[in-house]
Each structure stands twice: as C-alpha cells, then as structure tokens.
Automatic annotation (TrEMBL):
CDD domains: HMG-CoA_reductase_classII. GO terms for molecular function: hydroxymethylglutaryl-CoA reductase (NADH) activity. It comes from the Bacteria. Keywords: NAD, Oxidoreductase. PROSITE patterns: HMG_COA_REDUCTASE_4. Pathway: Metabolic intermediate metabolism; (R)-mevalonate degradation; (S)-3-hydroxy-3-methylglutaryl-CoA from (R)-mevalonate: step 1/1. Belongs to the HMG-CoA reductase family. This is 3-hydroxy-3-methylglutaryl coenzyme A reductase. InterPro entries: HMG_CoA_Rdtase, HMG_CoA_Rdtase_bac-typ, HMG_CoA_Rdtase_cat_sf, HMG_CoA_Rdtase_NAD(P)-bd_sf, HMG_CoA_Rdtase_sub-bd_dom_sf. It catalyses: (R)-mevalonate + 2 NAD(+) + CoA = (3S)-3-hydroxy-3-methylglutaryl-CoA + 2 NADH + 2 H(+). Its EC number is 1.1.1.88. It comes from Patiriisocius hiemis. Pfam families: HMG-CoA_red (PF00368). SUPFAM superfamilies: NAD-binding domain of HMG-CoA reductase (SSF55035), Substrate-binding domain of HMG-CoA reductase (SSF56542).
Length: 437
C-alpha cells in the first residue's frame, strides 16, 4: 500500500524514481530502465527538459513530423506537426497537395486584442463604484508603466480598462475588464503581471477614497487573463470552381454539395459539431505543440468560440456561390513566437526555422490553415470513401507493432491490405493465418 510522501519535490531525480518504484512499481523490475531509456544522452539537453516542469522523471516522446506543400498567401510552407494519432499528418499533407494547384490557402488576421479581468466583490452603491473608477482610471493605467515599458516601445501594452457591472448575474460581482496588445507574445504572464498590479492599486485607492462610506469597500477576488479571445481572430479560406472538385467517379458539383451539407450538419447539430471540431483540432493542436504554444489555452478558447451563439457549432463554414466552392474557418488564437517554451526547446526553435520565422500574426494564419486543411481532408473522406479506409490504412503499422509482427509479417500484411479495408480483427486474423501457414 503506497504511503503519502512529504518533501517529494526536494528529492533529486534518482530519489524520486526510487520512491515511485518502491511505492507503485515494485512489481515491474524493468520500470526504472524504461524511464531511463528515454533520457537524452546529452546531459545538458536532458537538464533543459528536466527543468521545463516539476518532478520530471523522464521524457515522453511524441513524433515530430511535417506536412509539406502548403501554399499559403502565395508562400510555400512545410508545416511541422507533433501528434500521437496516425493519419493526421497524412490527411493534412493530402489536403495541402489537393489545394496546391487550385491557388492554395489564403489567410488573414482580423484582430489581435487579448484581455484579462480583475474580479471584484462590491455590495455598496454602484454609482459610488463608478465615480471612484472614473476618477482613478488614469492612475490604474499608469500603475503598469514599469511592467509595460518595453511592450509599449514595441507598439503594444495595456489598451484600456473598463468597469463592468455583472451584479445582475451574480450578486455583488463587478469586473475590471482590461484589454491588451501583446504582439509576438501569447502574453499570459505579461497580462497577469499587469492585472495584479492594477488590482493592488485599485484596492489601495479604494481604501482611502471618500466614495466608500461605512467601510463598504470593493474587494478584489482574483486577477487573471482570459483564454477566451474573440477579439484575437484569424480567418483562413480555400475556394475554387466546383468543377475542379471531382473525386474519382463523383463529379465536382455533387461532391461540393455533399461537402457543404456535411458542414451544415456540423453547424446545426452539437454531437456532430464536436467531432467535426475535434478533426479541426487534430491539425491545430499538432502545430501548437510543434511550436511550443499552450494547447490548453487554445483548446479552451476555440471551443468557447464554437459556442459563441449560445449553442456549440462548427468552426468551419462552406458555401457554393455562382458555381464556386468556398470553405473557411474563423477562430480565436492567442499565440506566441516569443516567450514560453518558444526559445527554449530546440525542436520548437527548429519548427520556427521550418516555418520561415513567422511572427505571431503569421503563426495564427498557419495554424488556422492547418485546422482548415485537416477538416477538408476528414470531410472529403467522410462524404466519399468513409473515414476508416484512409485512417486505418495509416493505423495499420500501429496494430502490427502492437501484435509484435516481424518485418516480413509487416511486409506481407501491408501488401494484403493494399486493396482491403483495415480493421483490428481483420489484421489479427490475417496475421494468425500467415503465422499458422
Ligand atoms: C489518409 C489519407 C490521407 C489517405 O489518402 P489517399 O488518397 O489514400 O492517399 P494517397 O496514398 O493517394 O496519397 C496522396 C497524398 O496524401 C498524403 N499521404 C497519403 N499517405 C501518406 C502517408 N502515409 N504519409 C504522409 N502523407 C501521406 C500525401 O500528401 C500523398 O501525396 P504524396 O506524398 O504521395 O505526394 C486520406 O484518406 C485522408 O485524408 N483521410 C482523412 C484522415 C483523417 O482525417 N484522419 C484524422 C483521424 S480521424 C479523426 O480524428 C477526426 C474525424 C475524422 O472524426 C473528424 C470528423 O469526423 O470530421
Ligand atoms: N491561462 C493561461 O493561459 C496561462 C498561461 N501561462 C503560460 O504563459 C506563457 C506565455 O506567457 P507570455 O507572457 O507570452 O510569455 P513570457 O512570460 O515568456 O513573456 C514573453 C515576453 O517576451 C518579451 N518580448 C520580446 N519580444 C517581443 C515581441 N516582439 N512581442 C511581444 N513580446 C516580446 C516581452 O517582454 C514578453 O512579456 C505560456 O507558457 C503559457 O502556457 C501562464 C499563466 C496562465
């Protein structure tokens, strides 16, 4: 029975591993070796990774891959992707190749504003709070002068502070809604530092202000950025005459109509919308991870945006107008090309080199395109061959590895399934057959 541990964080790496082995893994003699096998031989590099997070025991590899042939705003990119799921990179590459001779993808950044809130309790007269806020607003803005000096020099910083009365929703609840331009940084740390400084000034000033009689002062509950960034938006698009969309025996117009229908189903039905958007996130998350950005922040913000109209809906849209097929995505993305892990992780640095050193706006465009491409490939499969044919073709090697197939067995199985749909059972059966023959 494992025991609670005190001072675990103070132990060194070997001690932490030994504690883990004796408390949870004593039945697995090879466990220590498994953890150590993934250490990098370069001890400096290993130390760098150890320090990214806390209580590090080993490294957790994911494949670093690329999807080539992305023509975006007339520049050709190979997009780095980090993901565990087979067929995602193939699908992205497939879509990139498909659109390459049709003008490629266009993308534009619509807005770049981020935001954060100081959440306030106040049970006094709203008018007093408003008077106080209006009077001290310049002080609040100047409170961040030091923190924001460099950001301001670059053309960013704190943009505005508004007092919002949310007491109708939650009794006594008000907000200082602050907006920011953080340029090439995602900005979480910058925004949080600004918010905490503003909050401190706000409370200090409130304590000595004549508006608040009988000691009913506004009180700060917490200060934190929001990962909902609908004012930091990017749009990516593909478009072509429907005649260019024929798929094998399916003519272009029929394909386009089926495709638009599939998108409209995702726009109107939550269960489908969630899977549809999961497919989009296959592409987005993979680029977010490869570029060392915060995938939890992006996921949370994007899904909230999908529900902006009060119900969860598709992040992509499709129309046919004058025999032209249009397919686009519009999503909020707060990304950094500086800060966070971006200048620390050697593979992230390499990813930025592969992407031709984008700034944050360009990265927003690339990520949106990756999401759109991914969705195009998935819907294209769904409305033609079905998803399993292509997906399971890519997943075949994982199944074979799970089943411990030899190189010769792999060769034979891949050959066998060239024209046959892959399923786990079918592979197990085929492998049994060749092993018994
Ligand atoms: C899987 C494919 C691409 C096969 O597609 P295919 O037509 O059999 O491919 P192909 O062998 O004719 O090759 C054509 C191109 O596809 C790419 N490609 C093809 N194979 C590879 C490979 N091994 N490695 C790298 N790239 C590959 C590559 O660009 C290649 O060009 P080439 O490199 O030869 O010049 C296609 O069927 C497809 O796009 N399927 C969609 C797969 C997908 O969306 N997977 C995501 C997982 S499923 C999911 O999570 C989400 C979902 C689907 O539920 C979302 C939703 O419901 O909306
Ligand atoms: N809720 C959330 O999403 C939270 C996320 N985080 C984490 O915060 C990190 C991101 O925070 P950041 O403040 O972006 O990173 P950071 O703290 O590394 O700061 C980046 C800094 O780079 C400097 N800089 C240099 N050149 C710049 C340019 N061209 N444009 C803008 N800034 C430039 C600025 O001083 C900026 O503050 C991520 O690791 C994220 O996971 C932290 C707290 C909460």
């Amino acid at each position: 029975m494992p025991k609670p541990v005190s001072g675990f964080s103070k132990k060194n790496k070997e001690e932490k591993i030994d504690w883990l082995l004796s408390n949870y893994l004593s039945h697995l003699p090879e466990a220590k070796n498994t953890l150590k096998k993934y250490w990098n031989a370069d001890s400096e590099l290993q130390k760098l990774h150890d320090d990214f997070i806390e209580n590090t025991l080993s490294n957790y590899y994911l494949p670093f891959s690329i999807a080539p042939n992305f023509l975006i705003n007339n520049t050709l990119y190979a997009i780095p992707m980090v993901i565990e799921e087979s067929s995602v990179v193939a699908a992205a590459s497939n879509a990139a190749k498909f659109w390459l001779d049709k003008g490629g993808f266009s993308a534009e950044v619509i807005s770049t504003q981020k935001n954060g809130q100081i959440h306030i309790n106040y049970y006094g007269d709203t008018k007093s709070l408003k008077n106080f806020f209006n009077e001290i607003k310049p002080l609040l803005i100047h409170a961040v002068d030091n923190i924001a000096e460099n950001m301001k020099k670059r053309g960013g910083g704190l943009l505005d502070i508004e007092l919002l009365d949310a007491s109708q929703t939650l009794e006594g609840y008000y907000q200082l809604h602050c907006t920011f331009e953080t340029l090439d940084a995602m900005g979480a740390n910058f925004i949080n530092s600004c918010l905490e400084t503003i909050a401190k000034t706000f409370e200090t000033e409130a304590r000595k202000h004549s508006e608040f009689k009988y000691e009913v002062y506004p009180e700060v509950v917490m200060s934190i950025l929001s990962n909902y960034v609908p004012e930091c938006l990017v749009r990516a698009k593909v478009s072509c005459p429907v005649t260019q969309l024929s798929q094998g025996k399916i003519d272009g117009k029929t394909f386009a109509e089926k495709f638009v229908r599939a998108v409209n189903i995702a726009k109107s039905e939550t269960r489908r919308a969630v899977t549809h958007n999961k497919g989009i996130m296959n592409g987005i998350d993979a680029v977010i991870l490869a570029t060392g950005n915060d995938f939890r922040a992006v996921e949370a913000g994007v899904h909230a945006y999908a529900a902006k109209n009060g119900y969860y809906s598709s992040l992509t849209h499709a129309t046919i107008e004058d025999e032209t097929f249009n397919f686009w995505i519009e999503i909020p993305l707060a990304l950094g090309t500086v800060g966070g892990l971006t200048s620390l992780h050697p593979l992230v640095k390499l990813a930025f080199e592969i992407l031709q050193k984008p700034n944050a706006k360009q990265l927003m465009q690339l990520v949106a395109v990756a999401g759109l491409a991914q969705n195009f490939a998935a819907i294209r499969s769904l409305v033609t061959t079905g998803i399993q044919k292509g997906h399971m073709k890519m997943h075949l090697m994982n199944i074979l590895n799970q089943l411990g197939a030899t190189e010769e067995e792999k060769r034979k199985t891949v050959q066998h399934f060239k024209d046959t749909t892959v399923s786990h059972t079918a592979v197990v059966n085929y492998l049994e057959n060749i092993r018994n023959s």
